[in-house]
Amino acid sequence: MRPGTLALLGDAGLVRVPRAAPLRTLTRRHAAGGRAGELWAGLHLPGINPEKLQQLAVCAQRFTPRVSLAPPDGLLLEVQGSLHLFAGVAGLRCALMSECLRLQVQPVLAFAPAALAALVAARAGKPLAVMDLAQLTGQLAPLPLAPLRWPPDTLARLARMGVRTIGAALRLPRAGFARRVGSQQLAMLDVLTGRTPEVRVTFHAPERFRRRRELSCELENHALLLAALAPLFADLGAFLRARQCGVVELECRLTHRHVPATRCVVRLAAPATDVQRLAGLLGEHLSALNLPEPARACELRADALVPHLPGSNGLWQPGEHGGSAGNEACGLIERLRARLGSEAVHGLTRLEAHRPENAWAVTGPPPAAGHRGAQSGCCADAPAAGRRPLWLLRAPQLLCVRDGLPRRRGPLRLVSEPERIETGWWDGGEIARDYYTAVDIHGVRLWVFRERAAPHGWFLHGVFG
Amino acid sequence: MKGASSGAAGAAAGREGLPAYAELHCLSNFTFLRGASHPHELVEQADSLGYAALAITDECSVAGVVRAHMAAKDRRLKLLIGSEFRLICGLKLVALAIDRRGYGRLCRLITRGRRAAGKGHYSLTRAELEAAGLEQCFILWLPAARPSPEELRWLAGRFPGKVRIAVELLRDGSDRERLAALVQIGAQCGVPLIASGDVHMHVRARRRLQDALTATRLKVPIAEVGLRLYANGERYLREPARLARLYPRELLEATAELALGCSFSLEELRYEYPRELVPPGQTPAGYLRRLTYEGARWRWPDGVPEGERAAIEHELALIAELRYEPYFLTVQDIVAYARRQGILCQGRGSAANSRVCYCLGVTSVDPQRGTALLFERFISRERNEPPDIDIDFEHERREEVLQYVYRKYGREHAALAATVITYRSRSALRDLARVFGLDAAESGRLAKVMQWWDGSAAIPQRVRDAGFDPGSPWLARLLPLANELVSFPGFPRHLSQHVGGFVISEGLLEELVPIENAAMPERTVVQWDKDDLNDLGLLKVDLLALGMLTALKRAFTLVNDYRGTHHALGQLPAEDPRVYAMISRADTIGVFQIESRAQMSMLPRLKPQCYYDLVIEVAIVRPGPIQGDMVHPYLRRRCGAEPVEYPGEEVREVLHRTLGVPIFQEQVMQIAIVAAGFSPGEADALRRAMGAWKRSGGLDPFRERLLQGMRAKGYPQEFAQRIYQQMLGFGEYGFPQSHAMSFALLVYDSAWLKCYEPAVFTCALLNSQPMGFYAPAQLVRDARAHGVEVRAVDACVSEWDSTLERRADGEPALRLGLRLVKSLSQSGVTRLLAARAVRPFASVPDLAIRAALDRGDLEALAAAAALVSLSGNRHLAFWEVAARERPMPLGFAPGRRADLEEGRPLLAAPTEGEGIAADYASLGLTLGRHPLALLRERLAAAALVTASELAGARNGAAVRTAGIVLMRQRPATASGVTFLTLEDESGQVNVIVWERVGRAQRRALIESRLLEVHGELQQQDGVTHLIARRLIDRSALLGELLTRSRDFH
After folding, report:
1. Are both A135 and A224 inside the same structural domain?
2. Residue in B776, B226, B696, B962 with CA at minimum distance from that of residue A381
3. pTM score
4. B387 CB contacts (<8 Å, ≥6 apart)?
5. Which of B565, B858, B952, B1016 is the most exposed place for a label (fewest CB within 10 A)?
6. Do B910 and A162 touch (CB under 8 A)?
7. Can you tell me the mean pLDDT for A154-166?
8. Do A227 and A329 lie in a common domain?
9. Which residue of A lies nearest to B435 if distances are taken between CA atoms?
10. At A70, phi and psi to the nearest 5?
């Protein structure tokens, strides 16, 4: 292609190139794309999930310090400086591909002197390796426009003019193109061909807290262990304060001489910053633990950091003057969990359903803070609300029958009229029962039912308080 | 407590001593998505349980009562008419009509409530209830869960002596408590108590369906409906023994007493014809006579022939005897209005082809031209039902006629009949899938597998095709419910408006039947459908829309303007042999009625030679004659391959015009009279049963009577069987000669135009779209095949409609109109035409600025290649159009300079394929080559032959071809066979897909746009069919070509 046919090269300056939104200081660390002497590897990773992309970016830092994410499915590496380490592009391609293979992702990989060009070629499924900026436009020309990911109606409009490739778009007059398609798109073409440098944000691995302490002597006593962890907690406190972060999960690892390390994990109902409290909770956990051997070293790990703004402390005591008791409850719940295990503590909620089995449900951890007002007065509308026992058996219990009446430690006396419930056919849990309140010989009020279908068994389903 | 297990023996023994019971609060499925049983099911169940009476009390509606009434008449069960209401304040009650006046007021109240709210809803206040004048109604108070004595006191004060407290004990565990509370309130207010059941279904087994309907109504998956479902299935018609255990005896007995106090029956409704039509001082009879003879002088300018005069006198006498004058005057008035407005119309139907209607201008069927059928065959003395006349109008102008009727008679006296929309397989599956929690997309997927022709038996197989496992538990629960919804007679889902059936009455219509709002503004419908109206003998005039009349009107205007002629409907040169020759070649694309594929394959066999042959042609390709196996005998006799014989002397008279083969509905009726000894009244009952046997199930009683009667008169059993089969076939599609005769007139006129003025005819058809069987692409292709020059859409020349342009040789060329351009606004075109009238456009920007077109309209024009004369090719047009980002402020046109600076862009010209694809996408047709011409090389390489090559192949040859699917048809009469029409650059191929082949290759059959077919060629009487063996979807070859097939029922 003769340079003269490229209208793009003709009338420079007609269109101003907008910069990327927040203007950062262009230091050597975050920066650049399309400068002379750069070479970008673009990876297109269709269908990759964000965690995996992150993971791959971390690994990619082995090849170059200048890694840049192009979410949701792209990754860019500036590799000019690393080429010699891998004996050129072919070697680097090999190394990168095997790294991807290890992480079980299948990328398309292209090389170009401009970051966007490498990415677009990869998205188009072309594993190009363009080393020279002068050749870039010619190589890009036959590629379709779709990998530029312009809005569908922009692409459709271009298609209606017969413009379906990058080359056809580049052949159009600049001003006319900007007017019809958009100046942003024109700017993007300039970035694509390396006319304008591109600002790319360099990837940084996410922060996490890890501190380890070798113990001077092997320890088994929980209190001493906790004391040995104190400097680590102090570090953690400083770390969290500096970043205005909290943790929702804290792991403590104790290393032994012969056996694998013991792990002890504290999960929190709400992000915590208070290391005293964290230390206290860990103490509870540790005391429930049987160590197989004395510990030689201990380590604190917190991977998931959550931004946290410190709240102001209330003037009132909890529960006083309508002050929320939420924090207290929170503390209680965490303590109960620490002692009984997370699974043993749950909430209860009432559901709108006719089937008694389905009229309540176990909820997850109750809300951490004080906003618990959602349980409105819906109970008033519930049918026969007064006649439901508080204690419902996990499964109805078959009762024996004599003379057509149920018995439980003696004959039962039915003291109410029947309440018929027939429902639940849609999920396989169909019931058809007549419920009664019954009184046993000790005067205990029971909730029993008789099956409507043969063999018409009698069951105990609940006990009134 | 023990009662629950009492045995059947006990119930039977106790029956004698049980108190009489009438259910007074019962909803049918006409309380849409609440009631779970049909009215007739409720009536039949109440009767079998020995109820003293049953009230149908649908919510603010009496839509289901006629059906209940007919069932109750059969069963001799006393039926009460009432309605349930929930006022805005929350007060719930049932009003039951005591007598005719009470019923009238009830209807008026329902009308008030319905008209005050949107379609399907109602809204009533206490003040409106109070003002409704329901003195002649019983009021049942339906107390809430916590009864409010205030409500009762209010009611008791307004309706003294008529209020009852409805005690509904539904085993929710608080029955005793509730009864005690109500007894106390009743004692305080001095209002008696009465038992009722809040019935929603006739048997307990409908509980699941009722739950599912509730979920559908609330638009929530059933698992989330929660307490808004009923806790149990007690809302059914309970056995009297069961009720006796639940209720105090006196509460039950009170129901029967109250029923005795209600005397109203729908039988009492008397219909009165409107009287406005007769000028003061004249009688209806005198006025009709005057109009008839005025018309006769117009029809026979040289004097009325003596025979006709006698026939007219005979008809007038019969009309007078039955006092049908107002009906004929009503029809005459509507037709006269249409004439005055220049709206083309034509009547048809049993009474339409009478001499009186001919004179009144209702129809153009010259009684001397067709067979003069006996007038008694249209209007019978014995039958107690009004005559039936349908009037077709130009489809685009029918609305004017409807509004005229509303204006003339007022909304209090005229309204459209309703159509009850019932569940079909597809809608049932979609709604139930939502009930089971599938999202919209999945429900759509499940529903979509059901083609419109599938019955309920096909459901499990189709469900499997869609990738659902029919054995999965939720589907196993869903499918029986779907079956209940679609099985006969179909569960009603909502009321819609009938296509054109008008009810007009002298008295207030709203005291006869409630009126509600239709979805369309300015439309009101009564709550009964056309069968209900028929059952009660109410007058109805069908005012229908017919696209062909619009097209004919346009064609006459065009041709008269172009050639200075005076052609008009029914006045073209009659019986032209060239027209019949064209018809006999099946060269009938665009011609009324005989353009369908089935008709086209019949034409070369039947070879119509005269008007009456067209009458037969129109009627013979119908379910009746096909199912009665009358088509082939007729064809054989016509070509002399079989002697014309009559199974008996009596039927010679009836059948001689159709060579001894019964083809028309009237003939079948007549045979029942002369050959099976039916009385005219019985024959009429038979006709009505024929129309409704699918609805009310079975012609069986008539079958025995018919077969026996014919046997007794010595007719062969086989002939009798065929007559009976034909009756079944007539069913819903009964096609009488009286309709066929009117239609045949339009067939002839449209065929004449096609034959002599193809450009005019095509132009008129294009301007009347959508109508008929073929899309513009086929119409234009056919016109070009007949030598019509068709010119492209051009923004510099085209009008909104397609137009005729005079060629150098004086013949018309057809210029396509801008109305064909997809997504071009009519207002934009109006501005464009106005700007063009000032001076021609110089360029695209000139056009864009002067016509003030927005980007959408400009792109639509560019897409249609309508700017090519200004810009060059389509790509350049889009380039120019794309520069018009937004409308420029007035007087400011900065675009020009920039355009000059920009210069011409380097854009590649579109390829031929791109051009054709773009033509189809924007216009639905192309004037370029057929898309398959571009693919021909590849197709030929795959040994696929063209349509024209097929025509030359021998009978029985194994062939392969491919074409664009124009149409898929699955006629109800063809027992699972699908007919396809494929098109390629050389013509069309008719493909027959037997059911077995279609089922095995269903996806290709249903989804292909370009279809490859391997099969066997069948040639018969000049008609070519391809019997498919293998179907292959080749749509991918079309790339972007957007050809959409049209599916027909």
Report:
1. no
2. B226
3. 0.72
4. B324, B327, B328, B349, B350, B351, B378, B379
5. B952
6. yes
7. 90
8. yes
9. A426
10. -125, 75
